[in-house]
């Protein structure tokens, strides 16, 4: 989100989804996580429009690890998308939201027996098989229940996406999926094809996250179509669906230059058509799993300015009432964010500060160099584009309660996750006596 696209009212206050951000802070307190729901819907429409123009058969599956709450699954359902879950907890949340289970895919590199049982008993649409151990576990679950299910095979395509090392997942040296080059994926397929309770509907791969160019996806399509042709020739099997995963990057700062959904989808469609033609394969249905691109730009973290430390001739630390507990990404990935003084939007830049949190860690820095207008304690800071992997990776470090989450749309605000209380923090504690 570029700062220019932000809206301010006559008082110079940031306006989110038609609601004054200072009103949100007064009413619900800070730190506060705010989602502009219309922005989520717009982004989904952009993906849909790009697919419609491509002429491909497609499915968009929201990667709910980016932000998974009951209200979020409701919005995804309203928009008619599929979703993927990676744990019993995400599955449980989706079930609580009444999300159609047939439209869920279940991922994970170490799904437990209990999680597989939960998925099968609730009739989850697709289980994405990740490793040989899981094939055996799932077989047991299905045989015991005289059940069957649709599966995809997650493969490791041997592609290194140009992104942070911690968010690369497609390279050979990865914990996820069956390796293609060593023949592991082919062995896995042979094994699964011999299990009558499993119906292989497609191939899945995810090369990484926060990706800004289409090269990795192009290589991925080539790899998946090549292996599809080999499998057709050797095993008489052709995957009906190619799931290309997520990873579509967003702009966190002015220097980020992300592609639009169409920039990704058009070349992917062209390459698929070319290879389907070359290998005489049917054009596969394409699934994608965006998480960040759907919720990232729609999210804002609101904080109140507190203490300040000026170190003469050196620097200034400006502290807010949240930090790494509600946004671990700067500490974990050196992620960069932009922020504004939400109650003084029209004032000129006055200084550059380290925007720090309140946690007992020197690394608890939300923004390393933030240009701000003149400010004082009580002012409101809005960190932008925090919607993906912010609240979903939040913790109670230092026994700080996690913030509330508010959805704003058409001038209305609604709490969709209540703020944790101190009582919540000790809810699971048991006295030792
Ligand atoms: C299998 C899978 N699909 C989709 C995603 C979503 O990625 P992103 O939020 O970058 O779109 C992830 C996370 O990186 C993932 O592991
Ligand atoms: N959590 C990461 C991305 C990895 C997502 C899951 N594979 C982030 O904040 O960017």
TrEMBL record:
Catalytic function, reaction form: meso-2,6-diaminopimelate + H(+) = L-lysine + CO2
Q: Which residues bind substrate?
A: 292, 329, 333, 361, 389
Q: For binding pyridoxal 5'-phosphate, which residues are annotated in this chain's numbering? A: 247, 289-292, 389
Q: Which InterPro entries match?
A: Ala_racemase/Decarboxylase_C, DAP_deCOOHase_LysA, De-COase2_CS, De-COase2_N, Orn/DAP/Arg_de-COase, PLP-binding_barrel
Which domain of life does the protein's organism represent? Answer: Bacteria
Alphabetically ordered keywords of this record: Amino-acid biosynthesis, Decarboxylase, Lyase, Lysine biosynthesis, Pyridoxal phosphate
The protein's required cofactor(s) are namely: pyridoxal 5'-phosphate
CDD domains (UniProt xref): PLPDE_III_DapDC
Q: In which pathway does it act?
A: Amino-acid biosynthesis; L-lysine biosynthesis via DAP pathway; L-lysine from DL-2,6-diaminopimelate: step 1/1
> What EC number(s) are associated with this protein in UniProt?
4.1.1.20
Gene Ontology terms for molecular function: diaminopimelate decarboxylase activity; pyridoxal phosphate binding
Q: Which residues form the active site?
A: 360
Q: Which residue range or ranges hold the Orn/DAP/Arg decarboxylase 2 N-terminal domain?
A: 38-296
Xref: PROSITE patterns: ODR_DC_2_2
Q: Which GO terms describe its biological process?
A: lysine biosynthetic process via diaminopimelate
List-wise, which residues carry N6-(pyridoxal phosphate)lysine?
Answer: 65
Q: Identify the enzyme class.
A: lyase
Function of the molecule: Specifically catalyzes the decarboxylation of meso-diaminopimelate (meso-DAP) to L-lysine.
Q: How does it assemble?
A: Homodimer.
The UniProt entry, under NCBIfam families, shows: lysA
Q: Which family does it belong to?
A: Belongs to the Orn/Lys/Arg decarboxylase class-II family. LysA subfamily.
Q: What is this protein called?
A: Diaminopimelate decarboxylase
Encoding gene per record = lysA
